[in-house]
Amino acid sequence: MEESRRKYQFGMVEDILRECEAEPTEPDRQTEMDGGILLTSGIHVYVPRYEINVHEGFFCHMEEGRLVPQNMLTVIYDRADKEYLYDAEENFVDTVHEWLDGQCTPEQLEQEPCEVKGTREEVLHGKGIQTGGSGRNPCGDGTACRSAGRHYGKR
Questions:
Q1: Alpha-carbon distance 65 to 130, whole Å?
Q2: Which residues are paired to 116 by β-bridges?
Q3: How far apart are the first and last CA of the chain?
Q4: Residue 89 CB: number of other CB atoms within 10 A?
Q5: Cα(83)–Cα(151) distance, rounded to whole angstroms?
Q6: pTM above 0.85, yes or no
Q7: Dihedral (C-alpha) 77, 31, 150, 7: value to the nearest 10 degrees?
Q8: Are residues 3 and 119 in contact, defined by beta-carbon separation less than 8 angstroms?
Q9: Do residues 69 and 58 lie in contact, with contact meaning Cβ atoms separated by under 8 Å?
Q10: Over the stretch 91-102, which tens digit does the pLDDT of each residue have?
């Protein structure tokens, strides 16, 4: 089967991905980083204007021979998906907005066209919740909110 690519608005795509059960064409990626392992999804969102790929991910540690997630992250890679650029414990829009450091407003970023890549079939909205909703993190206790993120590479 061919990889499907469909255009979406960046502000809606995270919810769509979480509600579908799309099968990735690529395996999840494991990268050793900061004394743990960054695990990123094989499905990603390409934002052409900024030439970046945005993935869901987890920062994990090894425990008894298996990966144990510590933090859920949004991870940004360059267009070629080779150079790690940034991650934060925020949703897609807030993470990219922080990485862009004021180049646009969150509202402008929500309207940005993007493509879902790395799926075998077209991603459809409304199939069934896979991992829960997205949006602004309401925790307020600092555990997964408003992280400063980590910058690597270019901006």
A1: 26
A2: 6, 45
A3: 35
A4: 20
A5: 12
A6: no
A7: 30
A8: yes
A9: yes
A10: 999 999 999 998
Q: What is the DSSP letter of 153?
A: S
Contacts of 41 (CB under 8 A, 6+ apart): 24, 28, 55, 56, 57, 118
Distance between CA atoms of 144 and 31, rounded to whole angstroms?
A: 21
**pLDDT in single tens digits along all 155 residues of the chain:** 344 456 899 999 998 888 887 778 888 899 998 889 999 999 999 999 999 999 999 999 988 988 899 999 999 999 987 899 999 999 999 999 999 998 999 999 999 999 998 887 666 554 332 333 333 333 333 333 333 454 444 43
Sign of CA dihedral 98, 20, 48, 78: positive
- Amino acid symbol at 133: G
Non-local CB neighbours of 102 within 8 Å, separated by 6+ positions: none
